[in-house]
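Example record used in the benchmark description.
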Amino acid sequence: MNVSVKELKKQALALSVAEREELAESLLESTHNKEVTEIDRQWISVAEERYEYLASGKESGIGESDFFSKIEEKLGWK
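Model output (structure tokens):
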């Protein structure tokens, strides 16, 4: 196969959410040599949902430093 990773990503992102989840599961299994668990599937679903929100502009997310500041604050590290 002579397709670049960039082209594969482009094609993968054009798939439906369900198809991307199936592809992600297969790729995870191939790299970890173990079956994807139900918890893994749930995390994949959450990641896909978050990606869709960010890609659609429904959410803008927060910057890395703000993210870690909020985590540190919640954990009482500040």
